[in-house]
Each structure stands twice: as structure tokens, then as C-alpha cells.
Write a structure and sequence with these properties.
The chain is of the alpha+beta class and about 200 residues long. The chain has one domain. It is about 35% helix and about 15% strand. The protein contains seven helices and five strands. A five-stranded antiparallel β-sheet has the order 3-1-2-5-4, covered by helices on one side.
Length: about 200
């Protein structure tokens, strides 16, 4: 376990214990599209022909780069010092719905307690959705005050206390929670990524 002070350890005890990263089984985990640059990322997206990820809007890559820039800026404004220029994306706890994004899904699971808490940020829900709800007036029915914000480990617990953890039951039965599929975790640590890709 990464060294934690007592308050952050208590926070971890109240959260789902593991982070889940979903990806195509025939590829490597934690391959950052944005780390490849805009042109390569565009090519990668064009080559996705199956699964929900193939249905992304035409301007998805442009939006992805813009949102990632906002994530990093918000993290740094809170005193964060990312070890990686691009985050790796996880869900806080499992989310079976995410499997539908892939043609042949696989998953890498790591204990939350094994990640440096100083290299974590969170959005509620998925970062693309969160910022879209914040920016688009026409999506006001789904907007929550937490949308468009980036949270540190000690802050996300307050958000969960207010809105609860996303669940399949909620998003299937509550219109206001229709797109709250999971809490996204951004890990800003290349060392962890290298460890995972070598067979964590």
C-alpha cells in the first residue's frame, strides 16, 4: 500500500476497493489515445468499427483533447503535480455497462490503495459527460453541481455522500441519473502504467 496519512486511509475505507480499466482484449491496456497526438488519435478512432466506442461523434477526438486539457488544468490548480502529461482512465469500482463500449472487452483491476493518492483525480460521472452537462444548457435536466468539476480523493467522498455511488438500478430507473454510469478516476502516474502493462 502506498504511504497514506490516517485521514486518507479512512477515506479509502469508505470507497470501492478497486479501480477497473476496460479495454479491447486484442490490445494492450492503458493505451492513451491523446498521448499519440491529434492525427494519430484521429486515425485510431476511425479504425474503431465495433462496440459503443465506434458510435462516438465526429468531433470526439477534438473534444477528448479539450476535456483532458481541462482535467489537467483543474488538477494543477488544486496543487496537483501530475507525473504523466496524460491520465489513464479507470472506473471507481466495476461497471458492466462499460463492457458494451468494446467489441471483445477485457479488464485490468488494481487496488485503489496501491495508487499514490496524490496522483488521482475524479469526475462524476465520466469526464466527457460531466463537462458536457456543465457546458450545454439544453442538458440541464441531467446537470448536477458536481458536473464540470475535478475532485481530489478527499473531495470525491463528499460528492458520493451527496449523490451516492452510480448504479445500474439508478441509471435505468431515474431519468436525472440516466448518464451517471460510473465515477471516472484519472491516474496521472506513468510508473503505475508501466507496472500494469508489464503484468501488475
Amino acid at each position: 500500500m502506498v504511504g497514506l496519512n490516517s485521514s486518507k486511509y479512512q477515506i479509502l475505507m469508505k470507497l470501492p476497493t478497486h479501480l477497473f480499466h476496460y479495454f479491447e482484449k486484442n490490445s494492450e491496456p492503458l493505451q492513451s489515445m491523446t498521448a499519440q497526438g491529434f492525427d494519430k488519435a484521429t486515425e485510431i478512432q476511425k479504425n474503431i468499427t465495433k462496440g459503443f466506442n465506434s458510435q462516438r461523434p465526429p468531433n470526439y477526438v477534438e473534444l477528448r483533447f479539450a476535456v483532458e486539457k481541462r482535467l489537467k488544468s483543474a488538477f494543477e490548480s488544486k496543487g496537483g503535480k501530475p507525473k504523466s502529461p496524460n491520465p489513464s482512465y479507470f472506473t471507481l469500482g466495476s461497471c458492466d455497462w462499460v463492457k458494451s463500449c468494446y467489441d471483445d472487452p477485457s479488464v485490468t483491476i488494481i487496488p485503489l490503495a496501491d495508487v499514490d493518492p496524490e496522483q488521482l483525480t475524479f469526475t462524476y460521472p465520466d469526464s466527457m459527460v460531466s463537462f458536457q452537462f456543465h457546458d450545454e444548457p439544453k442538458l440541464g435536466i441531467y446537470r448536477k453541481p458536481c458536473n464540470g468539476q475535478v475532485f481530489l480523493l478527499d473531495e470525491i467522498m463528499e460528492v458520493i455522500d451527496q449523490y451516492g455511488l452510480p448504479s445500474e438500478e439508478k441509471w435505468q430507473n431515474e431519468e436525472a441519473s440516466k448518464y451517471d454510469r460510473y465515477i471516472e478516476v484519472q491516474v496521472w502516474d506513468d510508473d503505475l502504467v508501466k507496472l500494469i502493462t508489464k503484468g501488475y
